């Protein structure tokens, strides 16, 4: 299926590995020109080398609003504009209410909420002017089913989901869609860090019988950016192999 994305320009945050890298790869496969960012120059350049010539690596940290804004501005300079924004960032440290100090919440909100707001502030106005744009936020299945040991992520990503839904309603008439994907357990370094590296044990708790393939997740990102998905907006879509057990 031709997704109608050839020649579009995308900024994909935190894409030196994991789900961000998979999203960048899927968009490149559809003929999109892509800018990616990461904090570590060596790792970022290695990722860009694997992705190919149509990738523009930008060293930066989207964990602060200033860094998030700078990434989108750098992507705009490199590509001549941003038609597609994929927001993404690493997760904050694990912890419970009892173990997490108050000062940790501000850092987590910057990382997983304010970075999303800042990137959208930098990218969406021009999308509205052009009458075409796509925002896809990578959040977490914890938005619907909070993880007891990830209170910072639960809190910040729920806030981001509320922001994205509100933004989607405001820009729906301007040709701009805003959606989020809620990954469950995928074979990434983050999952290995949180779950102690034993992915077989994780897979046993997933109805699909396996952890997710990041490439499959990337394909979901690309579809939400497509012409075929132009009537999908304001949605928060689980990509989790059935791991979330609720009806809605």
Automatic annotation (TrEMBL):
Query: From what organism does this protein derive?
Result: Actinomadura vinacea
Family under the similarity heading:
Belongs to the short-chain dehydrogenases/reductases (SDR) family.
Q: Extract the PANTHER family matched here.
A: 3-OXOACYL-(ACYL-CARRIER-PROTEIN) REDUCTASE, NADPH-DEPENDENT REDUCTASE BACG
Upper lineage: Bacteria, Bacillati, Actinomycetota, Actinomycetes, Streptosporangiales
UniProt xrefs under InterPro entries: NAD(P)-bd_dom_sf, SDR, SDR_fam
Quote the protein name from its UniProt record.
SDR family oxidoreductase
What domain of life? Bacteria
Tell me the Gene3D superfamilies matching this sequence.
NAD(P)-binding Rossmann-like Domain
């Amino acid at each position: 299926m031709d997704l109608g994305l050839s020649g579009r320009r995308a900024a994909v945050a935190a894409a030196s590995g994991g789900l961000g890298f998979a999203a960048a790869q899927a968009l490149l496969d559809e003929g999109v020109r892509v800018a990616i960012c990461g904090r570590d120059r060596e790792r970022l350049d290695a990722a860009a080398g694997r992705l190919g010539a149509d990738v523009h690596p930008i060293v930066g940290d989207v964990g602060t609003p200033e860094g998030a804004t700078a990434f989108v501005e750098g992507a705009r300079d490199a590509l001549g504009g941003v038609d597609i924004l994929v927001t993404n960032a690493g997760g904050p440290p694990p912890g419970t209410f009892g173990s997490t100090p108050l000062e940790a919440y501000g850092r987590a909100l910057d990382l997983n909420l304010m970075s999303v707001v800042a990137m959208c502030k930098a990218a969406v106005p021009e999308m509205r002017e052009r009458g075409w744009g796509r925002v896809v936020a990578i959040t977490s299945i914890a938005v619907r089913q909070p993880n007891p040991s990830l209170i910072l992520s639960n809190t910040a990503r729920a806030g981001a989901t509320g922001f994205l839904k509100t933004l989607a309603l405001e820009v729906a008439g301007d040709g701009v869609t805003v959606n989020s994907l809620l990954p469950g357990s995928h074979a990434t370094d983050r999952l290995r860090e949180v779950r102690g590296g034993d992915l077989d044990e994780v897979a046993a708790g997933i109805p699909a019988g396996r952890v997710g393939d990041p490439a499959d997740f990337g394909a979901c990102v690309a579809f939400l950016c497509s012409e075929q998905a132009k009537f999908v907006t304001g949605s928060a879509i689980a990509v989790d192999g059935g791991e979330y057990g609720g009806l809605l």
